[in-house]
Give the backbone structure.
Amino acid sequence: MSEVSLLDHALVRLDEAAKHLNVDADVIEKLKFARETTKARLMIRMDDGSRKSFLAWRCRYDDTRGPTKGGIRFHPESTADEVEMLAFWMTFKCAVMNLPYGGGKGAVQVDPRKLSKAELERLSRAYIQAFARIIGPDRDIPAPDVYTNSMIMGWMADEYAQIVGQASPGVITGKPLALGGSLGRGDATARGGFYLVRHLAEELGLKGSLRIAVQGFGNAGQHIARLLASDGHKIVAVSDSEGAVRAAGGLDLDRLFVAKDAGRSVVTTAGQGGHELLDGAALVGVDCDILVPSALENMIRIDNADLVKARIVLELANGPVTAEADAILEKKGVVVLPDILANAGGVTVSYFEWVQNRQGYYWPIEEIHERLRTIMEREGRAIWDVAKAKDVSVRTAAYVHALARLAEAIEAHGTQNYFAS
Ligand code: NAD
Protein backbone atom coordinates (compact mmCIF):
# COMPACT_ATOMS: atom_id res chain seq x y z
CA MET A 1 0.00 0.00 0.00
CA SER A 2 1.50 3.34 -0.97
CA GLU A 3 1.51 6.12 1.63
CA VAL A 4 0.18 9.58 0.84
CA SER A 5 3.18 11.89 0.48
CA LEU A 6 3.48 15.46 1.75
CA LEU A 7 3.50 16.55 -1.88
CA ASP A 8 0.21 14.69 -2.48
CA HIS A 9 -1.32 16.65 0.41
CA ALA A 10 -0.09 19.93 -1.12
CA LEU A 11 -1.44 18.94 -4.56
CA VAL A 12 -4.99 18.96 -3.13
CA ARG A 13 -4.73 22.77 -3.34
CA LEU A 14 -3.90 22.50 -7.06
CA ASP A 15 -6.96 20.31 -7.72
CA GLU A 16 -9.17 22.69 -5.76
CA ALA A 17 -7.90 25.72 -7.71
CA ALA A 18 -8.27 23.92 -11.05
CA LYS A 19 -12.01 23.48 -10.40
CA HIS A 20 -12.41 27.25 -10.66
CA LEU A 21 -10.46 27.76 -13.88
CA ASN A 22 -10.67 26.41 -17.36
CA VAL A 23 -7.06 25.22 -17.64
CA ASP A 24 -5.70 22.76 -20.16
CA ALA A 25 -5.01 19.23 -18.88
CA ASP A 26 -1.33 19.78 -19.85
CA VAL A 27 -1.04 22.39 -17.12
CA ILE A 28 -2.08 20.01 -14.36
CA GLU A 29 0.14 17.25 -15.76
CA LYS A 30 3.11 19.64 -15.64
CA LEU A 31 2.43 20.94 -12.13
CA LYS A 32 1.75 17.54 -10.54
CA PHE A 33 5.43 16.55 -10.56
CA ALA A 34 8.73 18.15 -9.67
CA ARG A 35 10.83 18.81 -12.77
CA GLU A 36 14.02 17.58 -11.10
CA THR A 37 15.09 16.64 -7.60
CA THR A 38 18.80 15.96 -7.18
CA LYS A 39 20.19 14.07 -4.22
CA ALA A 40 23.78 14.21 -3.01
CA ARG A 41 25.78 12.97 -0.08
CA LEU A 42 27.90 15.77 1.39
CA MET A 43 31.13 14.46 2.91
CA ILE A 44 32.94 16.81 5.30
CA ARG A 45 35.92 16.64 7.63
CA MET A 46 34.83 17.04 11.27
CA ASP A 47 36.90 18.95 13.83
CA ASP A 48 38.12 15.69 15.42
CA GLY A 49 39.63 14.58 12.09
CA SER A 50 36.92 12.06 11.19
CA ARG A 51 34.81 12.20 8.02
CA LYS A 52 31.02 12.39 8.18
CA SER A 53 28.40 12.42 5.43
CA PHE A 54 25.00 14.12 5.24
CA LEU A 55 22.13 13.64 2.79
CA ALA A 56 21.20 16.73 0.79
CA TRP A 57 18.72 17.66 -1.94
CA ARG A 58 17.91 20.45 -4.34
CA CYS A 59 14.54 20.46 -6.09
CA ARG A 60 13.66 22.62 -9.09
CA TYR A 61 9.91 22.11 -9.13
CA ASP A 62 8.83 24.20 -12.11
CA ASP A 63 10.73 26.82 -14.11
CA THR A 64 8.15 27.86 -16.71
CA ARG A 65 7.97 31.42 -15.34
CA GLY A 66 11.70 31.87 -14.73
CA PRO A 67 14.67 30.52 -12.75
CA THR A 68 13.63 28.48 -9.74
CA LYS A 69 13.78 30.22 -6.36
CA GLY A 70 13.65 28.84 -2.83
CA GLY A 71 15.48 28.45 0.46
CA ILE A 72 17.86 25.80 1.82
CA ARG A 73 16.99 24.35 5.22
CA PHE A 74 19.29 22.45 7.59
CA HIS A 75 17.08 20.11 9.60
CA PRO A 76 17.53 16.58 11.00
CA GLU A 77 14.09 15.49 9.71
CA SER A 78 14.31 16.89 6.18
CA THR A 79 13.34 14.46 3.41
CA ALA A 80 13.13 14.56 -0.40
CA ASP A 81 9.33 14.53 -0.13
CA GLU A 82 9.31 17.58 2.17
CA VAL A 83 11.71 19.42 -0.15
CA GLU A 84 9.39 18.77 -3.12
CA MET A 85 6.34 19.97 -1.18
CA LEU A 86 8.14 23.18 -0.16
CA ALA A 87 9.31 23.70 -3.77
CA PHE A 88 5.70 23.30 -4.96
CA TRP A 89 4.63 26.00 -2.47
CA MET A 90 7.41 28.28 -3.75
CA THR A 91 6.19 27.78 -7.34
CA PHE A 92 2.78 29.11 -6.33
CA LYS A 93 4.12 31.83 -4.00
CA CYS A 94 6.29 33.35 -6.77
CA ALA A 95 3.33 33.21 -9.17
CA VAL A 96 1.03 34.85 -6.57
CA MET A 97 3.40 37.83 -6.42
CA ASN A 98 4.06 37.83 -10.19
CA LEU A 99 7.81 37.45 -9.61
CA PRO A 100 9.66 36.17 -12.71
CA TYR A 101 10.57 32.93 -10.97
CA GLY A 102 9.61 29.30 -10.74
CA GLY A 103 9.78 27.38 -7.46
CA GLY A 104 12.63 25.45 -5.87
CA LYS A 105 13.88 24.32 -2.47
CA GLY A 106 16.85 22.58 -0.89
CA ALA A 107 17.76 20.83 2.34
CA VAL A 108 20.49 19.05 4.24
CA GLN A 109 19.48 16.34 6.69
CA VAL A 110 21.47 17.58 9.68
CA ASP A 111 21.03 19.06 13.14
CA PRO A 112 23.19 22.20 12.74
CA ARG A 113 23.18 22.80 16.51
CA LYS A 114 25.42 19.73 16.82
CA LEU A 115 28.07 21.18 14.46
CA SER A 116 30.87 23.60 15.32
CA LYS A 117 31.00 26.86 13.37
CA ALA A 118 33.87 25.56 11.25
CA GLU A 119 31.98 22.32 10.48
CA LEU A 120 28.92 24.39 9.52
CA GLU A 121 31.02 26.41 7.08
CA ARG A 122 32.47 23.22 5.53
CA LEU A 123 28.97 21.76 5.17
CA SER A 124 27.63 24.96 3.54
CA ARG A 125 30.51 25.00 1.06
CA ALA A 126 30.06 21.25 0.39
CA TYR A 127 26.41 21.91 -0.50
CA ILE A 128 27.49 24.34 -3.23
CA GLN A 129 30.24 22.01 -4.48
CA ALA A 130 27.57 19.31 -4.91
CA PHE A 131 24.92 21.52 -6.52
CA ALA A 132 26.96 24.20 -8.39
CA ARG A 133 25.87 22.69 -11.73
CA ILE A 134 22.22 23.00 -10.78
CA ILE A 135 22.10 26.50 -9.28
CA GLY A 136 22.98 29.81 -10.95
CA PRO A 137 21.67 33.40 -11.22
CA ASP A 138 19.61 32.44 -14.30
CA ARG A 139 18.84 28.89 -13.28
CA ASP A 140 18.12 28.33 -9.60
CA ILE A 141 18.58 30.86 -6.79
CA PRO A 142 18.75 29.63 -3.16
CA ALA A 143 18.07 31.70 -0.01
CA PRO A 144 17.95 31.09 3.77
CA ASP A 145 15.27 28.92 5.37
CA VAL A 146 14.92 27.04 8.68
CA TYR A 147 18.29 27.03 10.56
CA THR A 148 20.21 28.76 7.75
CA ASN A 149 21.09 32.45 7.87
CA SER A 150 22.82 35.30 6.05
CA MET A 151 26.31 34.17 7.08
CA ILE A 152 25.69 30.74 5.56
CA MET A 153 24.44 32.45 2.37
CA GLY A 154 27.68 34.48 2.33
CA TRP A 155 29.79 31.29 2.50
CA MET A 156 27.69 29.68 -0.21
CA ALA A 157 27.90 32.70 -2.56
CA ASP A 158 31.69 32.77 -2.03
CA GLU A 159 32.03 29.05 -2.81
CA TYR A 160 29.99 29.49 -5.99
CA ALA A 161 32.16 32.49 -7.04
CA GLN A 162 35.31 30.37 -6.58
CA ILE A 163 33.90 27.51 -8.66
CA VAL A 164 32.76 29.69 -11.59
CA GLY A 165 35.77 32.00 -11.29
CA GLN A 166 33.89 35.26 -10.98
CA ALA A 167 31.74 37.19 -8.51
CA SER A 168 28.10 36.12 -8.97
CA PRO A 169 26.13 37.72 -6.14
CA GLY A 170 22.82 37.04 -7.94
CA VAL A 171 23.20 33.28 -7.36
CA ILE A 172 21.94 33.49 -3.77
CA THR A 173 19.75 35.95 -1.85
CA GLY A 174 19.59 36.71 1.87
CA LYS A 175 23.32 37.54 1.87
CA PRO A 176 24.90 39.90 4.42
CA LEU A 177 24.55 43.56 3.40
CA ALA A 178 28.34 43.87 2.95
CA LEU A 179 28.29 41.02 0.40
CA GLY A 180 25.45 42.35 -1.78
CA GLY A 181 22.44 41.77 0.45
CA SER A 182 19.47 44.12 0.25
CA LEU A 183 18.26 46.64 2.77
CA GLY A 184 14.90 45.65 4.20
CA ARG A 185 15.34 41.85 3.94
CA GLY A 186 15.33 41.37 7.75
CA ASP A 187 11.72 42.38 8.35
CA ALA A 188 10.40 41.80 4.81
CA THR A 189 8.19 38.81 5.64
CA ALA A 190 6.45 40.55 8.53
CA ARG A 191 6.29 43.87 6.70
CA GLY A 192 4.56 42.25 3.72
CA GLY A 193 1.92 40.75 6.05
CA PHE A 194 1.57 44.09 7.79
CA TYR A 195 0.97 45.98 4.51
CA LEU A 196 -1.56 43.33 3.48
CA VAL A 197 -3.63 43.63 6.67
CA ARG A 198 -3.53 47.42 6.57
CA HIS A 199 -4.65 47.48 2.94
CA LEU A 200 -7.56 45.06 3.43
CA ALA A 201 -8.58 46.38 6.88
CA GLU A 202 -11.93 47.69 5.74
CA GLU A 203 -12.87 44.48 3.88
CA LEU A 204 -11.76 42.44 6.91
CA GLY A 205 -13.90 44.57 9.25
CA LEU A 206 -10.86 45.77 11.22
CA LYS A 207 -11.26 49.15 12.91
CA GLY A 208 -9.45 51.08 15.64
CA SER A 209 -6.93 49.53 17.98
CA LEU A 210 -6.79 45.74 17.51
CA ARG A 211 -5.72 42.93 19.84
CA ILE A 212 -3.03 40.66 18.38
CA ALA A 213 -1.70 37.25 19.46
CA VAL A 214 1.62 36.08 17.97
CA GLN A 215 2.60 32.41 17.97
CA GLY A 216 6.38 32.05 17.64
CA PHE A 217 8.51 35.04 18.64
CA GLY A 218 11.44 34.66 16.24
CA ASN A 219 12.31 36.76 13.20
CA ALA A 220 8.82 36.98 11.65
CA GLY A 221 6.98 37.08 15.01
CA GLN A 222 9.07 39.86 16.58
CA HIS A 223 8.89 42.07 13.49
CA ILE A 224 5.13 41.74 13.05
CA ALA A 225 4.63 42.57 16.76
CA ARG A 226 6.80 45.67 16.40
CA LEU A 227 5.10 46.84 13.20
CA LEU A 228 1.55 46.34 14.46
CA ALA A 229 2.32 47.94 17.84
CA SER A 230 3.81 50.99 16.12
CA ASP A 231 0.53 51.29 14.22
CA GLY A 232 -1.40 51.59 17.50
CA HIS A 233 -2.43 47.95 18.07
CA LYS A 234 -2.01 45.90 21.26
CA ILE A 235 0.00 42.69 21.39
CA VAL A 236 -1.99 40.72 23.99
CA ALA A 237 -0.11 37.37 23.87
CA VAL A 238 3.08 35.89 22.41
CA SER A 239 4.66 32.44 22.57
CA ASP A 240 7.87 30.62 21.75
CA SER A 241 8.96 26.99 22.03
CA GLU A 242 9.00 27.20 25.87
CA GLY A 243 5.57 28.71 26.52
CA ALA A 244 3.59 31.95 26.32
CA VAL A 245 2.80 35.19 28.15
CA ARG A 246 -0.24 37.40 27.96
CA ALA A 247 -1.48 40.79 29.16
CA ALA A 248 -5.02 41.86 28.29
CA GLY A 249 -3.94 45.52 28.33
CA GLY A 250 -0.99 44.84 25.98
CA LEU A 251 2.47 43.30 26.56
CA ASP A 252 5.59 45.40 27.09
CA LEU A 253 7.40 44.64 23.81
CA ASP A 254 10.74 46.15 24.82
CA ARG A 255 10.86 43.76 27.75
CA LEU A 256 10.22 40.84 25.38
CA PHE A 257 12.89 41.99 22.88
CA VAL A 258 15.46 42.30 25.69
CA ALA A 259 14.69 38.74 26.82
CA LYS A 260 14.96 37.31 23.27
CA ASP A 261 18.18 39.24 22.51
CA ALA A 262 19.68 37.72 25.64
CA GLY A 263 18.70 34.23 24.42
CA ARG A 264 15.90 33.86 26.99
CA SER A 265 12.33 32.68 26.40
CA VAL A 266 9.35 35.08 26.49
CA VAL A 267 8.17 33.17 29.59
CA THR A 268 11.03 34.71 31.61
CA THR A 269 9.14 38.04 31.50
CA ALA A 270 6.15 36.59 33.41
CA GLY A 271 5.40 38.50 36.60
CA GLN A 272 6.94 41.73 35.20
CA GLY A 273 5.07 44.62 33.55
CA GLY A 274 1.71 42.87 33.95
CA HIS A 275 2.82 39.78 31.96
CA GLU A 276 0.99 36.59 33.00
CA LEU A 277 2.23 33.09 32.21
CA LEU A 278 0.14 31.11 29.73
CA ASP A 279 0.43 27.54 28.50
CA GLY A 280 1.99 27.64 25.01
CA ALA A 281 -0.74 25.43 23.58
CA ALA A 282 -3.41 27.85 24.83
CA LEU A 283 -2.14 30.72 22.69
CA VAL A 284 -4.33 29.84 19.70
CA GLY A 285 -7.42 30.26 21.92
CA VAL A 286 -6.54 33.73 23.27
CA ASP A 287 -9.30 36.32 22.88
CA CYS A 288 -7.99 38.61 20.11
CA ASP A 289 -8.77 40.11 16.69
CA ILE A 290 -5.78 38.77 14.73
CA LEU A 291 -3.88 35.54 15.39
CA VAL A 292 -0.46 35.45 13.73
CA PRO A 293 1.08 31.96 13.46
CA SER A 294 4.79 32.60 12.95
CA ALA A 295 6.37 29.42 14.30
CA LEU A 296 6.13 26.08 12.52
CA GLU A 297 3.97 23.98 10.22
CA ASN A 298 0.74 22.24 11.37
CA MET A 299 0.20 24.32 14.54
CA ILE A 300 -3.55 24.81 14.04
CA ARG A 301 -5.08 21.40 13.60
CA ILE A 302 -8.33 19.48 13.85
CA ASP A 303 -7.88 19.24 17.66
CA ASN A 304 -7.42 22.97 18.41
CA ALA A 305 -8.96 24.91 15.49
CA ASP A 306 -12.25 25.20 17.32
CA LEU A 307 -10.51 27.14 20.12
CA VAL A 308 -9.59 30.04 17.81
CA LYS A 309 -11.36 33.26 18.84
CA ALA A 310 -9.59 35.59 16.40
CA ARG A 311 -11.53 36.87 13.38
CA ILE A 312 -8.42 36.90 11.18
CA VAL A 313 -5.48 34.49 10.93
CA LEU A 314 -2.38 35.97 9.28
CA GLU A 315 -0.15 33.06 8.23
CA LEU A 316 3.43 34.30 8.46
CA ALA A 317 4.66 30.72 8.97
CA ASN A 318 4.53 28.26 6.07
CA GLY A 319 1.69 25.75 6.36
CA PRO A 320 0.63 26.51 9.97
CA VAL A 321 -3.03 25.55 9.38
CA THR A 322 -3.85 21.98 8.27
CA ALA A 323 -6.50 21.35 5.60
CA GLU A 324 -8.94 19.95 8.23
CA ALA A 325 -8.42 23.00 10.46
CA ASP A 326 -8.97 25.26 7.43
CA ALA A 327 -12.46 23.81 7.00
CA ILE A 328 -13.26 24.34 10.70
CA LEU A 329 -12.06 27.96 10.61
CA GLU A 330 -14.05 28.66 7.47
CA LYS A 331 -17.21 27.34 9.12
CA LYS A 332 -16.56 29.59 12.12
CA GLY A 333 -16.25 32.61 9.79
CA VAL A 334 -12.54 33.12 10.52
CA VAL A 335 -10.74 34.65 7.52
CA VAL A 336 -7.34 33.05 6.89
CA LEU A 337 -4.83 35.19 4.96
CA PRO A 338 -2.81 32.30 3.49
CA ASP A 339 0.96 31.79 3.65
CA ILE A 340 1.58 31.97 -0.11
CA LEU A 341 0.31 35.57 0.02
CA ALA A 342 0.75 36.64 3.67
CA ASN A 343 4.45 35.73 4.02
CA ALA A 344 5.48 36.40 0.41
CA GLY A 345 7.13 39.70 1.42
CA GLY A 346 10.28 37.66 2.16
CA VAL A 347 10.72 36.25 -1.34
CA THR A 348 9.70 39.59 -2.82
CA VAL A 349 12.58 41.43 -1.15
CA SER A 350 14.83 38.50 -2.12
CA TYR A 351 13.77 39.25 -5.69
CA PHE A 352 14.71 42.92 -5.12
CA GLU A 353 18.14 41.75 -3.90
CA TRP A 354 18.64 39.72 -7.10
CA VAL A 355 17.56 42.67 -9.28
CA GLN A 356 19.97 45.02 -7.43
CA ASN A 357 22.83 42.48 -7.74
CA ARG A 358 22.27 42.22 -11.50
CA GLN A 359 22.09 45.96 -12.11
CA GLY A 360 24.86 46.77 -9.60
CA TYR A 361 22.85 49.68 -8.23
CA TYR A 362 21.35 49.54 -4.74
CA TRP A 363 18.08 51.12 -3.64
CA PRO A 364 17.50 53.10 -0.44
CA ILE A 365 15.24 51.55 2.21
CA GLU A 366 12.31 53.84 1.35
CA GLU A 367 12.32 52.51 -2.19
CA ILE A 368 12.36 48.89 -0.99
CA HIS A 369 9.40 49.52 1.32
CA GLU A 370 7.44 51.37 -1.34
CA ARG A 371 7.99 48.67 -3.97
CA LEU A 372 7.06 45.93 -1.48
CA ARG A 373 3.91 47.79 -0.41
CA THR A 374 2.84 48.29 -4.04
CA ILE A 375 3.16 44.58 -4.86
CA MET A 376 1.51 43.34 -1.63
CA GLU A 377 -1.44 45.67 -2.14
CA ARG A 378 -1.81 44.86 -5.84
CA GLU A 379 -1.75 41.09 -5.40
CA GLY A 380 -3.68 41.14 -2.11
CA ARG A 381 -6.45 43.17 -3.74
CA ALA A 382 -6.58 40.92 -6.81
CA ILE A 383 -6.84 37.80 -4.63
CA TRP A 384 -9.51 39.37 -2.42
CA ASP A 385 -11.52 40.15 -5.58
CA VAL A 386 -11.18 36.53 -6.80
CA ALA A 387 -12.37 35.28 -3.38
CA LYS A 388 -15.46 37.49 -3.58
CA ALA A 389 -16.21 36.81 -7.27
CA LYS A 390 -15.94 33.03 -6.90
CA ASP A 391 -17.22 32.86 -3.32
CA VAL A 392 -14.19 30.87 -2.14
CA SER A 393 -11.73 31.17 0.75
CA VAL A 394 -8.81 33.57 0.39
CA ARG A 395 -6.50 30.53 0.28
CA THR A 396 -8.33 28.99 -2.67
CA ALA A 397 -8.41 32.41 -4.33
CA ALA A 398 -4.62 32.75 -3.93
CA TYR A 399 -4.10 29.36 -5.59
CA VAL A 400 -6.55 30.25 -8.38
CA HIS A 401 -4.73 33.56 -8.92
CA ALA A 402 -1.34 31.81 -9.10
CA LEU A 403 -2.59 28.92 -11.23
CA ALA A 404 -4.02 31.35 -13.80
CA ARG A 405 -0.52 32.84 -14.24
CA LEU A 406 1.21 29.47 -14.33
CA ALA A 407 -1.37 28.16 -16.82
CA GLU A 408 -0.92 31.16 -19.10
CA ALA A 409 2.84 30.54 -19.20
CA ILE A 410 2.56 26.77 -19.71
CA GLU A 411 -0.15 27.16 -22.36
CA ALA A 412 1.97 29.73 -24.24
CA HIS A 413 4.24 26.82 -25.28
CA GLY A 414 1.25 25.15 -26.96
CA THR A 415 -1.38 22.84 -25.52
CA GLN A 416 -2.96 19.49 -26.30
CA ASN A 417 -5.69 21.32 -28.25
CA TYR A 418 -3.15 23.29 -30.25
CA PHE A 419 -1.08 20.27 -31.26
CA ALA A 420 -4.05 17.96 -31.91
CA SER A 421 -5.87 20.37 -34.25
P1 NAD B 1 12.67 31.72 13.74
O1 NAD B 1 13.44 30.47 13.96
O2 NAD B 1 13.36 33.04 13.83
O3 NAD B 1 11.43 31.77 14.78
C1 NAD B 1 10.62 30.69 15.05
C2 NAD B 1 10.00 30.90 16.43
O4 NAD B 1 9.03 29.89 16.67
C3 NAD B 1 11.00 30.83 17.59
O5 NAD B 1 10.74 31.90 18.48
C4 NAD B 1 10.66 29.50 18.28
O6 NAD B 1 10.93 29.52 19.68
C5 NAD B 1 9.18 29.45 18.02
N1 NAD B 1 8.60 28.12 18.21
C6 NAD B 1 9.10 26.90 17.93
N2 NAD B 1 8.25 25.94 18.30
C7 NAD B 1 7.17 26.57 18.84
C8 NAD B 1 5.96 26.13 19.41
N3 NAD B 1 5.68 24.84 19.51
N4 NAD B 1 5.08 27.07 19.86
C9 NAD B 1 5.35 28.37 19.77
N5 NAD B 1 6.49 28.85 19.24
C10 NAD B 1 7.38 27.96 18.78
O7 NAD B 1 11.97 31.53 12.31
P2 NAD B 1 11.34 32.65 11.36
O8 NAD B 1 12.34 33.02 10.33
O9 NAD B 1 10.67 33.70 12.14
O10 NAD B 1 10.24 31.76 10.60
C11 NAD B 1 9.02 31.40 11.23
C12 NAD B 1 8.07 30.83 10.21
O11 NAD B 1 7.90 31.79 9.16
C13 NAD B 1 8.54 29.54 9.52
O12 NAD B 1 7.40 28.76 9.21
C14 NAD B 1 9.15 30.05 8.24
O13 NAD B 1 9.16 29.06 7.23
C15 NAD B 1 8.21 31.18 7.92
N6 NAD B 1 8.77 32.15 7.01
C16 NAD B 1 9.82 32.93 7.40
C17 NAD B 1 10.36 33.82 6.48
C18 NAD B 1 11.48 34.74 6.88
O14 NAD B 1 11.85 35.58 6.05
N7 NAD B 1 12.00 34.69 8.10
C19 NAD B 1 9.83 33.90 5.17
C20 NAD B 1 8.74 33.11 4.82
C21 NAD B 1 8.23 32.22 5.75
Remarks:
- The two ends are 40 Å apart (CA to CA).
- The CA atoms of residues 51 and 369 lie 46 Å apart.
